[in-house]
Amino acid sequence: MLHEVRALQGATPRLVDYLRARLAAVPTRYVGELVTRGAVRVNGSPGRTYQPLHDGDQVALDPAALAALARVGRWVAPEPGRLDVVHEDEHLLVVCKPPGVHVHPLGALRTGTLQNALVYYAGGRAETPWAAWRPRPAQRLDRAASGLLVVAKQEAVAAALAELLAANRLSRRYLATVRGVVAEPAGTVDAPLGRDPTFDYRRAALPLALGGQEAITHWRVHERLAERTLLEVTTETGRTHQIRAHLALIGHPIVGDTLYSHPPPAAGADRGSTSAVQIALHAAHVAFRHPRTGASLACSAPPPAGFGQVPSVPA
Q: Which of 117, 147, 248, 294 is least surrounded by CB atoms within 10 angstroms?
């Protein structure tokens, strides 16, 4: 698997950094291991982790070492598939994730994720791991939810996006169809969240003194339907399952959300038995100042067909 280094434009990256940027199918935490085990050669000699690379250098990878990573799940298989790209430039892209798809490989689930499709989109293939860039999703979005995600193409851009998120300067607006008719026109849920002591995959209102984390969600009624309400939702914080848990807390769980339905899952319930394939939660709008160009960037995407009429089907 020979690769020629090119288009460095005067830069002299270290071998390990170049590999982390271009071996998109190999998780970054395992890239250094390839070098230290002698699986990478530069111009015919064993590669050194921090050696500088130059245009024209020949980098060779040991196929057996890559195959070994794949066998133990240390591999993101490039998979062709439809990727709904809403915006793209040389630094980042914004994609719309369908419901029922994990963002990253998780546990035994190594295929069919958004990251598998992104690695293929970046140029990775089963026969060669080299890609033009490494996809770095900047946000989280539950498997059962749909909507917009920002994906960085470079590590520095990913770090800049993380700073925007931490400062609440990456604006996100969601649509959520909830059970029941919400009477008030708008409201705010300010309730710290932590792991539910009866079912730790689920989040529950938990005081800060007992390990809860600050969580603030704003909502307003967009449309009232028969026995359901369509809400527009924004958040000030980004806790796991925050919108799902907060809307259930006010008595209006999201349509299709079996994990936060009432009554809650029984103690000892299997995680799979409480996970819906699709819930009526959609990240419809994202806006931020581009970390490289400084321009204001705003993207929107409509919810999937059948949104708000989602059956509660176990995963």
A: 294
CA 21/CA 5 separation, integer angstroms: 12
| pLDDT in 10s for each residue of the chain, 315 residues | 678 888 676 678 899 999 999 999 999 999 999 999 999 999 999 999 999 999 899 999 999 998 888 888 888 999 998 899 999 999 999 999 999 999 998 877 888 999 999 999 999 988 888 899 999 999 989 999 999 999 999 999 999 999 999 999 999 999 999 999 999 999 999 999 999 988 878 999 999 999 999 999 999 999 998 899 999 999 999 999 999 999 999 999 999 999 998 666 555 555 555 566 899 999 999 999 999 999 999 999 999 988 877 554 333
Can you tell me the distance from the alpha carbon of 310 to that of 254, in angstroms, rounded to the nearest whole number? 10
Q: Cis peptide before 291, with omega less than 30 degrees from 0?
A: no
φ and ψ of 21, to 5 deg: -80, -30
Q: Which two tokens stand for residue 24?
A: 């998109």
**Residues noted as catalytic:** 142
Domains of the chain: 1-75 (3.10.290.10), 168-300 (3.30.2350.10)
Q: Which residue has the tokens 């089907």?
A: 313
What is d(CA 259, CA 234) in angstroms, rounded to the nearest whole number?
A: 21
What is the C-alpha separation between 125 and 249, in angstroms, rounded? 45
Of the candidates 312, 307, 170, 147, the one whose C-alpha atom is nearest the C-alpha of residue 237 is 170
H helix intervals, the chain: 15-22, 28-36, 63-71, 114-121, 155-166, 242-249
Terminal C-alpha separation, the chain: 39
CA 138 to CA 104: how far, in whole Å?
Answer: 12
